[in-house]
Structure formats: structure tokens, C-alpha cells
Amino acid sequence: MVTVSIPERTMPPLDADERTCLASWLDFYRATLVGKCDGLADDQLRAESATPSSMTLLGLLQHMAEVERNWFRRVLAQEDAPPIYTPGPKRSPHDGGFDLDEGSSYDRALRVWGEEVDVARRNCADRAIDASVAFMGGQVTLRWIYTHMIGEYARHCGHADLLRERIDGSTGV
Fold it and tell me: pTM for this one?
């Protein structure tokens, strides 16, 4: 099994400062997504939601590795980080990871995702919450990126909820 630094799924603090609150909610949703995959075999993680959607739990995890890379490396740290996954022909360049290939596996996806989360944390560690970087002709702050990522994970955790329930009836987490 792969060893990555998966955040424990705990309730974010109710009385923390803004940065701690945002980082805690992001970790909460990161752990929620991984929890939705926990205990399933690779074939179950590859199970498509329902026609016409080809969304899978494995694809969601791969996609979120790509999203972590985009916002915390390419945007925040201004790194020239190549895509991890190539989007399929029906997807936009921002939809990398959703499509699976023969080499896709949970162990690999979890390792890659965990590495991207670790890099994201390092890239955020010494930055002020209102620190900004150039983005799309303007500026974007770490605060905005945290908020965007919380929304991105929350949306995909909702998808994961439905996928997991369809696979084995499991709800919660």
C-alpha cells in the first residue's frame, strides 16, 4: 500500500484564525475524498457513475491531483509544472485526470495526489494569506486559492458521495 500524508478527517476548528480555518477546511475535504475511495478494489474505483457520465472515483482522485498542481504550483508558485494526466479528446485542458487508462491504479493515483498535496502545503507554508501573484492579467491571493480549492473539493466530494453509494451503498464520511 502507498504511504502518503493524508490529512486526518477532523472537524475544522470553530475559533481559529482565517488561515488556519481555510487550511483546515481544505484538509477536511481532501480527507473526505480519499475516504470515499477507502476500502474499494480498483475495479470498483473504475466504476462509472451513470450514462452518459464517465466519472469515476479513481478519475476524481487523479483530477484533484491535477487541480492541486495547477493552483499551488503553476499559479501560486509560478512553476512550470507539466500536466500529470492528459485529458481525453472530449475534455478541456483543465479536465486532466478524469479519463482512465490501463496504467491508472488507486495506488499510483493516491501517491501522485499525496505528493501534490505535500508540495501544495510547502508552497503555502511561508506565504501570507493575502500574498498575491500574477494571474490572468491581474492578481490572485492565497486566500482566493484556498477558497476556490475548498469549493472544488466540496463539489467533487458530492460527486464522490453519489459514486460510492452507487458502488456499495455506503454513505457518510
Answer: 0.91
